[in-house]
Amino acid sequence: MLPSNITSTHPATFLLVGIPGLEHLHVWISIPFCFAYTLALLGNCTLLFIIRADAALHEPMYLFLAMLATIDLVLSSTTLPKMLAIFWFRDREISFFACLVQMFFLHSFSIMESAVLLAMAFDRYVAICKPLHYTTVLTRSLITKIGMAAVVRAVTLTTPLPFLLRHFHYCRGPVIAHCYCEHMAVVRLVCGDTSFNNIYGIAVAMFIVVLDLLFVILSYVFILQAVLQLASQEARYKAFGTCVSHIGAILSTYTPVVISSVMHRVARRAAPHVHILLAIFYLLFPPMINPIIYGVKTKQIRDYMLSLFQRKNM
């Protein structure tokens, strides 16, 4: 519940510790993080460039992929630049309102990513189970509505968090034991009743992960049934092969979430840096690996890249 006294006393700035217990290794830890962030930037920007440049890729599957690439760019750029500033320059200060903005973008774009992965599962379901209706079902209008619905859902679910945190009294100091402004890390600095924040945060996370993942699994149950009914083995391989990239993206996104959730329950006494490293892995791994998955496994994108290299070599 909101505290009765609306006049909050929040610090002007927070201090982000980085990775507690591993401060002496920050410079070394930053090397793989910087490399992964660079790959994420190059990979997702390349995907967006290819999808925009090649008219043959202006299909529903690739439009959803462009949404995913955009979300991954924003998601990684919301946290990594500040994180690297902490590791390299010990620039630990972040203003109170900048912290809330970072939190809003972090959580809202994570929710959007889950929605887009669900939309891509729906795309594969229609393409394989109802191929004759693919172009009539997945129109530009429907894709736009799906994209808008993903944004509205994410913003609606995330907006209460920063507004709730604005009105709390922060009496436990300005030091956040994390390398970015994660909701629960900020809540730990609050004095007063934060039960609503705790319940709301867990409820939203469970609602998004469980509901979206349930519908993704349901889509693939129908897809698997349709694939197994195909006459030839070659046709079955070809049909299911169109899903491989999407399955890879799902695994790269949800596996770190599940591992982190299990670790929080099974290894509660583990050092704080274990949980924080898992949280960073969740933010950085999908944006880095998704362009590689789609670049390697998607023939149209691979062919366009090869044609670009051939032109340069001529």
Structure, explained:
The protein is mainly alpha-helical and 314 residues long. The chain has a single domain (13-303), classed as Rhopdopsin 7-helix transmembrane proteins, CATH 1.20.1070.10. It is built from twelve helices and five strands. It is globular. 34% of the residues are buried. Belongs to the G-protein coupled receptor 1 family. It is a multi-pass membrane protein. Its main location: membrane. Residues 43-294 form the G-protein coupled receptors family 1 profile domain.
Number of domains: 1
How many beta-strand elements?
A: 5
Quick one: biggest sheet?
A: 3 strands, mixed
User: Could you name the CATH topology?
Assistant: Rhopdopsin 7-helix transmembrane proteins
**Radius of gyration over alpha carbons?**
21 Å
- Which term fits the overall shape? globular
* Beta-strand percent range: under 5%
Helix and strand content put the structural class at mainly alpha
The CATH superfamily label reads Rhodopsin 7-helix transmembrane proteins
Low confidence ranges: 1-7
How far apart the termini lie comes to 67 Å
Number of helices: 12
Helix percent reads over 70%
Keywords: Cell membrane, G-protein coupled receptor, Membrane, Olfaction, Receptor, Sensory transduction, Transducer, Transmembrane, Transmembrane helix
Transmembrane segments: 25-50, 62-88, 94-122, 142-165, 199-223, 235-254, 274-296
GO molecular function: G protein-coupled receptor activity; olfactory receptor activity
InterPro entries: GPCR_Rhodpsn, GPCR_Rhodpsn_7TM, Olfact_rcpt, OR51/52/56-like
